[in-house]
Amino acid sequence: MPNTDDSSDPHTSERLLLLVGDSDIERWPEKFYPCLQGAGASTAVDSHGNSFFSLSGHSGATLGQVLIHLRDALEDARGAADRKSPTIILVVCAGENDIGMGVSLETTKVNFSALLDLVFSDQIVAGSGGDLTHFIFLGPKFEPWMEYDNDSVGMKQAYAKLDRAFQRLCDEYAKRHENLSSNIHYIDCLDMFCGDTSNLPGARTGGRAVAKEEFFCSDQLHLSDDGYAVWKETVERIIKKKCL
User: Which residues belong to any copy of the SGNH hydrolase-type esterase domain (predicted)?
Assistant: First the structure.
């Protein structure tokens, strides 16, 4: 008798979307949630076509704290899945608060590595990749308030250093676990909202890139609808091209 169980087929597997992180995730407007086109069948489909959706955002959370929330979110998602091995598309944003809270870069890097291990632990043990978990990380971004900081250039350089560290850790992790190289997606947001100033010499390392206020709320810290629209489009582009 032929095997009719298609749960291992990446084209038919159940797809779950999780957004986990700090206040940038917490404040993400529902109308700008990323959408999974062509998601697998599920008992629970939200208004955006996602077979399972979970948002776990926590204002002021450091990367180490987000790591704890991520563990809970993954457990909840896997528990809600109809199939044994669902495809999880995980969008994470964290790390900026580490700078504000005085967390050392080395500690942040350790927590980021632990986050990657948590996300991919099952796939590393099983030696599989491709269709179980896709990790999309939204990196730190320049924000308008930085222009008024007492050490504007120094603050931007700290963000740029964090951005480089995150990118390097993702690249190194993918090299160590080649079967996961197509599952790790780092989005460089550092000067994403800086318009033409992102093209200036020293824009990133010299702090010359200036975030445009139109992409941020009046507090000059959190993204506005226009900012989230950019993130939605960017995340959906990766999902469509690399995750489905």
Answer: 49-230
> Residues 119, 139, 92, 88: is their CA dihedral positive or negative?
negative
pLDDT per position as a tens digit, 65-113: 999 999 999 888 877 766 566 788 999 999 999 999 999 999 999 999 9
Of 6 and 51, the structure prediction assigns the larger pLDDT to 51
CATH architecture of 15-243: 3-Layer(aba) Sandwich (3.40)
Domain ranges of the chain: 15-243
In the Cβ-directed half-sphere of 230, how many Cα atoms lie within 13 Å?
18
- DSSP-derived secondary structure letter, 205: T
pLDDT at 48 over 90: no
The Cα angle at residue 45 between residues 41 and 47, in degrees rounded to 5: 140
pLDDT > 50? residue 7 = no
Contact 24, 222 (CB under 8 A): yes
Do residues 111 and 160 touch, judged by C-beta distance below 8 A? no
